[in-house]
Design goal:
Elements lengths: L1 H19 L8 E5 L6 H17 L3 E5 L6 H8 L7 E6 H11 L11 E11 L1 E4 L8 H10 L5 E4 L5 H13 L4 E4 L3 H10 L4 E4 L1 H9 L4 E5 L25 E9 L4 H16 L1 H9 L10 H22 L5
Parallel strand pairs: 1-2, 1-3, 6-7, 6-8
Antiparallel strand pairs: 3-10, 4-10, 5-8, 5-9
Family: Belongs to the UPF0065 (bug) family.
Protein name: Tripartite-type tricarboxylate transporter, receptor component TctC
InterPro entries: BUG, Bug_dom1
């Protein structure tokens, strides 16, 4: 009797073992976008989601949970189950700049509370002037600012954002001073730029391109390695005479810390497949959201560490804080 029970026991356990080893995912996967619908983070995530869903074989549900510069949605994922059921599309704002902006009030630690899964896109920042300023290239702007410390003002879509900190890095690089005029979003800043109320701004090519093409604004440089396909006539910062200067945002997927490595690897493969799909790549480029084509979880984690080391001190030096 005991021998028979011993023989039956492994057989009785087999269904449970099979369930425990079932390939992930076995249910819908949720990706939290910590910003309102319609923004570039949301648009790029929704563009990639169908291919991610196809690779995983389960529905991928996008949930917009905005507020507090993306920290509310990010924090909700940091405190979510570590079972691969939920991820967050983090950005340079939520996982780097927020550390400097919020300090001890930030409810999560980007490295301790998350595991990096996969980067998706890099968003360039460009330097633009109103034609009335009278400069036609980046060297002319640099000379003007250096000759007139504190005389000129520049606008961005908000204090502590990637455009603002990119502007701080620019002024540091050229050894000049200018006054920051933060707006509550890029739209009101653009209105004042077009009206000549502010003569210099830092924002994305997607915002500036139509007005550059129409001659209402003049974009002087794009602060990434490659020119923007929306403004192919505009040089990179290096081409315009300021090598080494970069300003950008980026997006990437994160999971709660403790998520099993096998799940992280599988999700990385799905995101990479989505980003590298030719149709998706073309659509991202058309919207000036250049895809990041490479990046293992370990490489993305190393990139995050470098970004924290580079940008958080600039945020703190800028004096910007979260409202």
């Amino acid at each position: 009797m005991h021998r028979r029970s011993a023989l039956l026991l492994p057989a009785l356990l087999l269904p449970g073992v099979a369930r425990a080893q079932a390939p992930w995912p076995t249910r819908p996967v949720r990706i939290v976008v910590p910003f309102a619908a319609g923004g570039s983070t949301d648009v790029s995530t929704r563009l990639l989601a169908p291919r991610i869903q196809q690779v995983l074989g389960q529905p991928v549900v996008i949930e917009n949970r905005g507020g507090a510069g993306g920290t509310i949605g990010s924090d909700s994922v940091a405190k979510s189950p570590q079972d691969g059921s939920v991820f967050v599309m983090g950005t340079i704002s939520t996982h780097v700049l927020a550390v400097g902006l919020y300090g001890a009030r930030l409810p999560y630690d980007p490295e301790r509370d998350f595991v990096a899964v996969a980067p998706t896109v890099m968003v360039p920042i460009c330097i633009t002037v109103h034609p009335s300023l009278g400069v036609t290239d980046l060297r002319g702007l640099v000379a003007l600012l250096k000759a007139n410390p504190g005389k000129y003002a520049y606008g961005t879509g908000g204090a502590g954002g990637s455009a603002h900190i990119g502007a701080v890095a620019f002024l540091n690089a050229i050894g000049a001073e200018a006054t920051h005029v933060p707006y509550r979003g890029s739209a009101p800043m653009l209105t004042d730029m077009l009206a000549g109320q502010v003569s210099i701004c830092f924002d994305t090519p997607a915002l500036i391109a139509p007005h550059h093409a129409g001659g209402r604004l003049r974009c002087l440089a794009v602060a990434t390695d490659a020119r923007s396909p929306l403004m192919p006539d505009v040089p990179t910062a290096a081409e315009a005479g300021l090598p080494g200067y970069k300003a950008y945002s980026w997006f990437g997927l994160f999971a709660p810390a403790g998520t099993p490595a096998a799940i992280v690897t599988r999700m990385n493969e799905a995101v990479r497949a989505a980003v590298m799909e030719p149709g998706n790549r073309a659509r991202l480029v058309e919207q000036d959201l250049p895809p990041i084509l490479e990046g293992s979880p370990a490489e993305f984690a190393a990139f995050l560490r470098r970004e924290l080391a580079e940008w958080v001190p600039l945020v703190r030096a800028s004096g910007a804080t979260a409202d």
